[in-house]
Hints:
The protein is α/β, with parallel strands linked by helices. The chain is 27% helix and 20% strand.
Amino acid sequence: MDELVEIRWHGRGGQGAVTSAELLALTAIREGKVAQAFPSFGPERRGAPVIAFNRISKDKPIRARAAIAEPDIVIVLDPGLLGIIDVAHGLKDGGTLVVNSPRELSAVNSEIGGPWRLAVVDATRIARDILKRPIVNTAMLGALVKATGIVNLESLFQPLQERFGRLAESNIKACREAHKETLIMEPTPGAKRPEKVYPVEKWPSWKELNIGFVVTEVGSARGYQTGYWKSEHPVRDNERCIKCGMCALFCPEDCIRQTEEGYFEADDFYCKGCGICARECWTGAVTMVEV
Protein backbone atom coordinates (compact mmCIF):
# COMPACT_ATOMS: atom_id res chain seq x y z
CA MET A 1 0.00 0.00 0.00
CA ASP A 2 0.98 3.66 -0.37
CA GLU A 3 2.35 5.60 2.60
CA LEU A 4 -1.12 7.04 3.28
CA VAL A 5 -4.44 5.79 1.94
CA GLU A 6 -7.61 7.85 2.37
CA ILE A 7 -11.02 6.18 2.19
CA ARG A 8 -14.59 7.51 2.06
CA TRP A 9 -17.68 5.44 2.83
CA HIS A 10 -21.14 6.32 1.49
CA GLY A 11 -24.19 4.66 3.00
CA ARG A 12 -27.53 5.37 4.63
CA GLY A 13 -28.35 5.65 8.29
CA GLY A 14 -28.74 2.13 9.67
CA GLN A 15 -26.58 0.32 7.09
CA GLY A 16 -23.40 0.28 9.14
CA ALA A 17 -21.03 2.56 7.22
CA VAL A 18 -19.63 4.01 10.45
CA THR A 19 -19.15 0.53 11.90
CA SER A 20 -17.36 -0.59 8.74
CA ALA A 21 -14.90 2.29 9.01
CA GLU A 22 -14.23 1.47 12.67
CA LEU A 23 -13.68 -2.23 11.96
CA LEU A 24 -11.32 -1.44 9.09
CA ALA A 25 -9.26 0.87 11.32
CA LEU A 26 -9.08 -1.74 14.10
CA THR A 27 -7.95 -4.35 11.60
CA ALA A 28 -5.24 -2.09 10.18
CA ILE A 29 -3.96 -1.31 13.69
CA ARG A 30 -3.78 -5.05 14.47
CA GLU A 31 -1.56 -5.43 11.41
CA GLY A 32 0.84 -2.81 12.80
CA LYS A 33 -0.39 0.07 10.67
CA VAL A 34 -1.53 3.50 11.82
CA ALA A 35 -5.23 4.17 11.22
CA GLN A 36 -8.14 6.44 12.05
CA ALA A 37 -11.89 6.25 11.48
CA PHE A 38 -14.52 8.93 11.94
CA PRO A 39 -18.02 9.76 10.67
CA SER A 40 -19.55 12.92 9.27
CA PHE A 41 -22.85 13.52 11.00
CA GLY A 42 -25.56 16.11 10.63
CA PRO A 43 -29.24 15.67 11.49
CA GLU A 44 -29.35 12.30 9.71
CA ARG A 45 -32.00 9.71 10.42
CA ARG A 46 -32.45 6.11 9.39
CA GLY A 47 -32.31 5.94 5.59
CA ALA A 48 -30.64 9.34 5.12
CA PRO A 49 -27.21 9.55 3.41
CA VAL A 50 -24.26 9.10 5.81
CA ILE A 51 -20.52 9.47 5.23
CA ALA A 52 -17.61 7.93 7.12
CA PHE A 53 -13.85 8.13 6.59
CA ASN A 54 -10.63 6.17 7.08
CA ARG A 55 -7.00 7.11 6.88
CA ILE A 56 -4.47 4.26 6.96
CA SER A 57 -0.70 4.70 7.03
CA LYS A 58 2.03 2.07 6.87
CA ASP A 59 3.86 3.35 9.93
CA LYS A 60 3.87 7.16 10.02
CA PRO A 61 1.64 9.17 12.40
CA ILE A 62 -1.50 10.65 10.87
CA ARG A 63 -1.83 14.34 11.72
CA ALA A 64 -4.83 15.24 9.55
CA ARG A 65 -8.29 15.06 11.13
CA ALA A 66 -10.38 16.83 8.49
CA ALA A 67 -12.95 15.22 6.20
CA ILE A 68 -11.47 13.55 3.12
CA ALA A 69 -12.11 15.47 -0.10
CA GLU A 70 -9.86 13.51 -2.48
CA PRO A 71 -10.02 9.85 -1.47
CA ASP A 72 -7.99 7.01 -2.89
CA ILE A 73 -10.89 4.60 -2.31
CA VAL A 74 -14.67 5.10 -2.20
CA ILE A 75 -17.12 2.45 -0.97
CA VAL A 76 -20.86 2.74 -1.71
CA LEU A 77 -23.12 0.60 0.49
CA ASP A 78 -26.39 1.57 -1.18
CA PRO A 79 -26.84 1.57 -4.98
CA GLY A 80 -29.71 4.06 -4.64
CA LEU A 81 -27.18 6.73 -3.73
CA LEU A 82 -25.66 6.63 -7.23
CA GLY A 83 -28.57 8.64 -8.60
CA ILE A 84 -28.71 11.34 -5.93
CA ILE A 85 -25.12 11.90 -4.74
CA ASP A 86 -21.85 12.29 -6.63
CA VAL A 87 -20.18 9.46 -4.73
CA ALA A 88 -17.07 9.64 -6.93
CA HIS A 89 -16.53 13.35 -6.23
CA GLY A 90 -12.83 13.95 -5.70
CA LEU A 91 -11.89 10.28 -6.23
CA LYS A 92 -8.31 10.25 -7.47
CA ASP A 93 -7.47 9.04 -10.96
CA GLY A 94 -6.28 5.48 -10.59
CA GLY A 95 -8.24 5.08 -7.35
CA THR A 96 -10.83 2.42 -6.56
CA LEU A 97 -14.62 2.61 -6.40
CA VAL A 98 -16.38 -0.31 -4.65
CA VAL A 99 -20.15 -0.49 -5.20
CA ASN A 100 -22.91 -2.67 -3.81
CA SER A 101 -25.24 -3.37 -6.74
CA PRO A 102 -27.28 -6.28 -8.14
CA ARG A 103 -26.52 -5.13 -11.69
CA GLU A 104 -23.86 -6.46 -14.03
CA LEU A 105 -20.39 -4.93 -13.75
CA SER A 106 -20.66 -3.44 -17.24
CA ALA A 107 -23.98 -1.76 -16.41
CA VAL A 108 -22.57 -0.14 -13.28
CA ASN A 109 -19.51 0.94 -15.23
CA SER A 110 -21.71 2.68 -17.81
CA GLU A 111 -23.22 4.79 -15.02
CA ILE A 112 -20.33 5.49 -12.67
CA GLY A 113 -17.22 4.27 -14.49
CA GLY A 114 -14.28 6.61 -14.86
CA PRO A 115 -10.48 6.81 -14.52
CA TRP A 116 -10.58 4.43 -11.55
CA ARG A 117 -10.82 0.72 -10.83
CA LEU A 118 -14.44 -0.38 -10.36
CA ALA A 119 -15.45 -3.27 -8.09
CA VAL A 120 -19.05 -4.50 -7.87
CA VAL A 121 -20.73 -7.04 -5.62
CA ASP A 122 -24.36 -7.81 -4.79
CA ALA A 123 -23.82 -7.37 -1.06
CA THR A 124 -27.55 -6.97 -0.35
CA ARG A 125 -28.29 -10.45 -1.69
CA ILE A 126 -25.41 -11.92 0.28
CA ALA A 127 -26.60 -10.22 3.47
CA ARG A 128 -30.17 -11.41 2.96
CA ASP A 129 -29.04 -14.99 2.36
CA ILE A 130 -26.58 -15.20 5.25
CA LEU A 131 -27.59 -12.56 7.82
CA LYS A 132 -31.32 -12.70 7.00
CA ARG A 133 -31.42 -8.90 6.82
CA PRO A 134 -30.03 -6.31 4.36
CA ILE A 135 -27.19 -4.95 6.52
CA VAL A 136 -24.29 -4.97 4.08
CA ASN A 137 -21.38 -3.46 5.99
CA THR A 138 -19.46 -6.67 6.73
CA ALA A 139 -20.00 -7.95 3.20
CA MET A 140 -18.64 -4.68 1.81
CA LEU A 141 -15.52 -5.07 3.95
CA GLY A 142 -14.85 -8.31 2.10
CA ALA A 143 -15.40 -6.57 -1.23
CA LEU A 144 -13.05 -3.76 -0.21
CA VAL A 145 -10.28 -6.20 0.66
CA LYS A 146 -10.75 -8.06 -2.64
CA ALA A 147 -10.54 -4.82 -4.64
CA THR A 148 -7.66 -3.14 -2.79
CA GLY A 149 -5.79 -5.49 -0.47
CA ILE A 150 -5.79 -2.66 2.07
CA VAL A 151 -5.67 -5.31 4.85
CA ASN A 152 -5.57 -9.10 4.88
CA LEU A 153 -8.95 -10.79 4.81
CA GLU A 154 -8.12 -13.06 7.75
CA SER A 155 -7.14 -10.04 9.85
CA LEU A 156 -10.74 -8.81 9.75
CA PHE A 157 -12.17 -11.79 11.56
CA GLN A 158 -10.96 -11.05 15.10
CA PRO A 159 -12.42 -7.50 15.12
CA LEU A 160 -15.65 -8.96 13.69
CA GLN A 161 -15.69 -11.55 16.47
CA GLU A 162 -15.20 -8.90 19.15
CA ARG A 163 -17.85 -6.57 17.69
CA PHE A 164 -20.60 -9.05 16.86
CA GLY A 165 -20.13 -11.83 19.44
CA ARG A 166 -22.57 -14.68 18.76
CA LEU A 167 -23.43 -13.13 15.38
CA ALA A 168 -19.80 -12.99 14.31
CA GLU A 169 -19.78 -16.32 12.46
CA SER A 170 -22.50 -15.25 10.02
CA ASN A 171 -20.86 -11.84 9.50
CA ILE A 172 -17.53 -13.51 8.78
CA LYS A 173 -19.28 -15.79 6.31
CA ALA A 174 -20.85 -12.76 4.56
CA CYS A 175 -17.44 -11.12 4.43
CA ARG A 176 -15.87 -14.21 2.86
CA GLU A 177 -18.68 -14.65 0.35
CA ALA A 178 -18.52 -11.03 -0.83
CA HIS A 179 -14.74 -11.30 -1.14
CA LYS A 180 -15.22 -14.32 -3.40
CA GLU A 181 -18.00 -12.80 -5.54
CA THR A 182 -16.61 -9.28 -6.08
CA LEU A 183 -15.91 -8.52 -9.73
CA ILE A 184 -13.31 -5.93 -10.73
CA MET A 185 -12.85 -3.82 -13.85
CA GLU A 186 -9.66 -1.88 -14.48
CA PRO A 187 -10.03 1.68 -15.83
CA THR A 188 -10.10 2.10 -19.59
CA PRO A 189 -7.14 4.19 -20.84
CA GLY A 190 -8.31 7.76 -21.34
CA ALA A 191 -11.56 7.21 -19.42
CA LYS A 192 -13.26 10.43 -18.33
CA ARG A 193 -15.30 11.23 -15.28
CA PRO A 194 -19.05 10.79 -15.76
CA GLU A 195 -20.97 13.98 -16.45
CA LYS A 196 -24.19 13.95 -14.52
CA VAL A 197 -26.36 16.59 -12.88
CA TYR A 198 -27.38 15.68 -9.36
CA PRO A 199 -30.43 17.10 -7.58
CA VAL A 200 -29.81 20.14 -5.43
CA GLU A 201 -32.09 20.84 -2.49
CA LYS A 202 -33.59 24.32 -2.57
CA TRP A 203 -35.42 25.79 0.40
CA PRO A 204 -37.53 28.94 0.15
CA SER A 205 -35.98 32.13 1.45
CA TRP A 206 -37.54 34.03 4.34
CA LYS A 207 -39.05 36.48 1.83
CA GLU A 208 -41.04 33.64 0.26
CA LEU A 209 -42.46 32.33 3.53
CA ASN A 210 -46.07 33.04 4.39
CA ILE A 211 -47.48 33.36 7.90
CA GLY A 212 -48.05 29.87 9.24
CA PHE A 213 -45.71 28.30 6.68
CA VAL A 214 -44.62 24.76 7.58
CA VAL A 215 -41.98 22.69 5.83
CA THR A 216 -43.70 19.33 5.51
CA GLU A 217 -40.81 17.24 4.20
CA VAL A 218 -38.63 17.31 7.29
CA GLY A 219 -35.06 16.16 6.78
CA SER A 220 -35.35 16.39 2.97
CA ALA A 221 -36.50 12.76 2.96
CA ARG A 222 -38.15 13.07 -0.44
CA GLY A 223 -35.13 14.66 -2.08
CA TYR A 224 -32.80 11.98 -0.70
CA GLN A 225 -35.32 9.12 -1.11
CA THR A 226 -34.64 7.90 2.42
CA GLY A 227 -37.00 4.96 2.06
CA TYR A 228 -35.38 3.58 -1.08
CA TRP A 229 -32.80 1.39 0.67
CA LYS A 230 -35.37 -0.89 2.30
CA SER A 231 -35.43 -4.53 1.21
CA GLU A 232 -39.15 -5.07 1.86
CA HIS A 233 -42.26 -2.91 1.58
CA PRO A 234 -45.84 -3.36 2.79
CA VAL A 235 -48.51 -4.61 0.37
CA ARG A 236 -52.22 -4.40 1.20
CA ASP A 237 -54.90 -7.00 0.43
CA ASN A 238 -58.14 -5.07 -0.09
CA GLU A 239 -60.19 -8.21 0.50
CA ARG A 240 -58.92 -8.44 4.07
CA CYS A 241 -58.55 -4.73 4.86
CA ILE A 242 -61.37 -3.29 6.99
CA LYS A 243 -59.95 0.28 6.90
CA CYS A 244 -59.39 0.36 10.67
CA GLY A 245 -56.18 2.40 10.45
CA MET A 246 -54.16 0.32 12.92
CA CYS A 247 -51.25 0.26 10.47
CA ALA A 248 -51.13 4.05 10.36
CA LEU A 249 -51.49 4.30 14.14
CA PHE A 250 -48.41 2.17 14.82
CA CYS A 251 -46.20 3.38 11.93
CA PRO A 252 -43.05 4.84 13.59
CA GLU A 253 -42.37 7.00 10.51
CA ASP A 254 -45.95 8.37 10.32
CA CYS A 255 -45.77 7.68 6.59
CA ILE A 256 -49.12 5.88 6.11
CA ARG A 257 -51.98 7.99 4.79
CA GLN A 258 -55.62 7.22 4.01
CA THR A 259 -56.65 7.19 0.35
CA GLU A 260 -59.87 8.57 -1.07
CA GLU A 261 -61.26 5.03 -1.01
CA GLY A 262 -60.57 4.78 2.72
CA TYR A 263 -57.63 2.36 2.50
CA PHE A 264 -54.24 3.12 4.05
CA GLU A 265 -51.04 3.31 1.99
CA ALA A 266 -47.40 3.85 2.94
CA ASP A 267 -45.36 6.52 1.17
CA ASP A 268 -42.34 4.73 -0.32
CA PHE A 269 -40.22 7.85 -0.02
CA TYR A 270 -40.42 7.58 3.77
CA CYS A 271 -41.23 3.91 4.53
CA LYS A 272 -38.14 2.13 5.89
CA GLY A 273 -39.61 -1.38 5.57
CA CYS A 274 -39.64 -2.09 9.31
CA GLY A 275 -42.73 -4.34 9.04
CA ILE A 276 -44.51 -3.00 12.12
CA CYS A 277 -47.65 -2.26 10.10
CA ALA A 278 -47.83 -5.90 9.00
CA ARG A 279 -47.32 -7.18 12.54
CA GLU A 280 -50.03 -4.91 13.94
CA CYS A 281 -52.59 -5.64 11.20
CA TRP A 282 -54.87 -8.09 13.02
CA THR A 283 -56.82 -9.01 9.87
CA GLY A 284 -53.68 -10.03 7.96
CA ALA A 285 -54.34 -7.50 5.23
CA VAL A 286 -50.77 -6.18 5.21
CA THR A 287 -47.81 -8.36 4.27
CA MET A 288 -44.16 -7.50 3.69
CA VAL A 289 -42.86 -8.23 0.18
CA GLU A 290 -39.30 -7.95 -1.15
CA VAL A 291 -38.74 -4.79 -3.16
